[in-house]
Structures are given as structure tokens and as C-alpha cells.
Write a sequence for this structure.
């Protein structure tokens, strides 16, 4: 049975965009994925996103994506929301992945702005609507123009919010002004998709996080969130400032690379990367250790 959602928090509050563990020879590590998912939920996550960019979705097959959803659901699906990333730059393929995720039992879908092809706002509207029409699952949009090349403009977000199954947005736009207007006008549940802006986005109406650093500091993220929700902004700010070295260190280079390195340092499942992603150098690993130590992460 899935966890209980509310209109305000349809996917929980603290979600980690989970890496996809691989074995030493590069195959999907199902056992590792289940152990990692269990660890993350035990640490305070009430949701996990699988098959997102942090899950190396561009280099996993459709069959692997389905296996991963089923495995994570088996491990933690009664304790946490399992949201399947289904976003591609091909609407038909995204619809296929959405239906596959629904059959596998996913609790919701994350769908990123189509990348590289730079569609118009009308194209974005039709793309997201077609995906939302394809299943009965609730949908979280993912707005990350730094990667996709195209922002979801506020007017488009407001129009998409009229769809009964488009219920949330993961915001990695980095624009608090636009976020403020979009939250106020759309009524969507807003999730920070940029760890450095977790606290600032709460202040303009976000309800939670879809985090990368949640692999390492989920208890601190939950403490920050609860302090803010309880009106203790001073404590929330202290936690935010304490985590600044972690936020910075985990994004000195591509986030999957640093996350898998950090998991390896902690003895947690992660494994190798698939090309074109490559492991950290020795110097980069030493810098990551310093950053994490400065943020209180024990390795």
C-alpha cells in the first residue's frame, strides 16, 4: 500500500533523486538498489525518485527502468512514495515509459522538460499534457532550463496546472521571483530541485525537496524542513548554513559523479558510472572529502 498523500504534499516532503547502483561490470544492481532505497528511507526520506537524471536515465534501458521501479517498490513502497522519472525529449517514448511505470506500480511520475530540441511553450504544453493523459498517476513537472535549454514559463505552468493529474513541480530554475508567481498562480505543490535553494524556496511557498544531497544528509534536510514549518526560522537557517559545504561540494562537478563517489566512501551501494560519466580524480575525491567533512558528513 502506498503512503498517504495530501493535495499539499502529493509525494511527501523529503525526496531523494536516487542514483542507480551498478555492479562492478556495469550491470544493474537490483540488490544494491533495494539496500540503498531502504537506507534512504530509514534516514528520513519519505519519497524517492528513480530513473531520473541522477539515476543515469539517459544510459539505462527501458527494461532496466522497469526492473528498478519494481525493486524499489518492493523494498520501500509501503513506507515512501516511489516516483518514476519518465521524461525524455520524445513524447511517444515518455508516454511508453509512463505506462510502463504505472504497470510496475509507481506512485507517481516525474517528467522533465524535453531537452536539446528546444520546443516552444505550446510544444511543452502538449508534451506534458499527453503524458498526463496517458496514465492515472499524478505527475510532477521538472523545470530545469540549465539542462533542457527551455524554461517552462509561468503562463504555461498555470495552464498545465489545470490538468487534474499535474499536481506538482520540481523547480530547478533558480529564480525565486518566477517561483513566487508560479506558486501563487498555479496552486501546484512546489518542490525545490536545487539543494542550495531548499530553504529560500520554502520561504516563497515550496512544500519540500527533491534532493541530491539527501543521499547523505536526509536527517538534516528533514530537521531544516520541520524547523521552518514549526516557525523556527533561525534554526532552519542555522541548518542551511551548516549544510553549505555539502551543497557546494556535491555540485563542484556533475552530481551523479560526486554522489556515487560519496556513497562509495561511506560503503553504500552505488558502483561505477556509465559513460559518458566518469569517476572523480584523486584530487577531486580529496576535495569532496574536505567539503563533506566541513558539512558534518561522516565518511
Amino acid at each position: 500500500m502506498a503512503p498517504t498523500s495530501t493535495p499539499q504534499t502529493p509525494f511527501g516532503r523529503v525526496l531523494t533523486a536516487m542514483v542507480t547502483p551498478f555492479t562492478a561490470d556495469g550491470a544493474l544492481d537490483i540488490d544494491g538498489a533495494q539496500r540503498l532505497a531502504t537506507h534512504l528511507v530509514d534516514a528520513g526520506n519519505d519519497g524517492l525518485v528513480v530513473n531520473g537524471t541522477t539515476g543515469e536515465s539517459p544510459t539505462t534501458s527501458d527494461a532496466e527502468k522497469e526492473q528498478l521501479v519494481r525493486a524499489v517498490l518492493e523494498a520501500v513502497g509501503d513506507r515512501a512514495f516511489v516516483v518514476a522519472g519518465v521524461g525524455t525529449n520524445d513524447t511517444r517514448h515518455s508516454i511508453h515509459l509512463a505506462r510502463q511505470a504505472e504497470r510496475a506500480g509507481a506512485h507517481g511520475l516525474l517528467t522533465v522538460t524535453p531537452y536539446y530540441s528546444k520546443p516552444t511553450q505550446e510544444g511543452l504544453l502538449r508534451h506534458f499534457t499527453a503524458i498526463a493523459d496517458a496514465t492515472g498517476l499524478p505527475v510532477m513537472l521538472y523545470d530545469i532550463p540549465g539542462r533542457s535549454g527551455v524554461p517552462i514559463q509561468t503562463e504555461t505552468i498555470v495552464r498545465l496546472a489545470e490538468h487534474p493529474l499535474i499536481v506538482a513541480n520540481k523547480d530547478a530554475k533558480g529564480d525565486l521571483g518566477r517561483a513566487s508567481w508560479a506558486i501563487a498562480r498555479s496552486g501546484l505543490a512546489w518542490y525545490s530541485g536545487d539543494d542550495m535553494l531548499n530553504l529560500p524556496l520554502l520561504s516563497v511557498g515550496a512544500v519540500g525537496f527533491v534532493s541530491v544531497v539527501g543521499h547523505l544528509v536526509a536527517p538534516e534536510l528533514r530537521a531544516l524542513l520541520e524547523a521552518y514549518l514549526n516557525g523556527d526560522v533561525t534554526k532552519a537557517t542555522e541548518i542551511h548554513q551548516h549544510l553549505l559545504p555539502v551543497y557546494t561540494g556535491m555540485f563542484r562537478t556533475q552530481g551523479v559523479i560526486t554522489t556515487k563517489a560519496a556513497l562509495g566512501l561511506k560503503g553504500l551501494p552505488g558502483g561505477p558510472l556509465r559513460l559518458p560519466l566518469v569517476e572523480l580524480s584523486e584530487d577531486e575525491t580529496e576535495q569532496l572529502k574536505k567539503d563533506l567533512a566541513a558539512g558534518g558528513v561522516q565518511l
In short: The chain has a mean pLDDT of 97. The first strand starts at residue 14 and ends at 17. The first helix runs from residue 30 to 42.
